[in-house]
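Table 4 source record.
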Amino acid sequence: MPRIPAVTIEQTGPLLRLAYRFARKRYGAVPEPVAVVAHHPALMRATVVNELLAERASRVLPAAVRELAVYRTAVRLGCSWCVDFGTMLQKHEGLDIDRLKAIDDYATSPKFTRKERLAIAYADAMTESPVRVTDEQVAELEREFGRAGVIELTYQIALENMRARMNSALDITDQGFTSGEACRVELGDPAA
């Protein structure tokens, strides 16, 4: 149970009901972080718009590279909600989710390509406090992915840092997206 409860369907107005319906259609359930942030409608709208635009704009990197870096960030920060949701997204992208079990051994595991290892190491460096990214690391990423690729990777890792830290602070935990039980989080009647 999050530290601040989710806004239920019965507590929403027409715009939020529409957002909840969209989320249920797209993901099978309303993501709990969205339902919690709904207590501040302007920030919820900003969050949803930012997420949709970032998703649409992030097309420079191969999906596996981007998603593995984001997943690693969630793992490093211990955000079970992000790990659950991220695994579901990778599954829907047709990516190999079985290798996620080897993410802690990415540096030596043959399950990860050189490009993926570079991105995961960058996620580790960006997620440290303080950040420990080096000039050499960015130069190597730029050679591999180009400037736009480095910016996309940096943005996505930073965005996941924000998500994971916010979810952890509010004690938002896994919702069952990977297991198909996401609807177990009761937000009210979806038809309302």
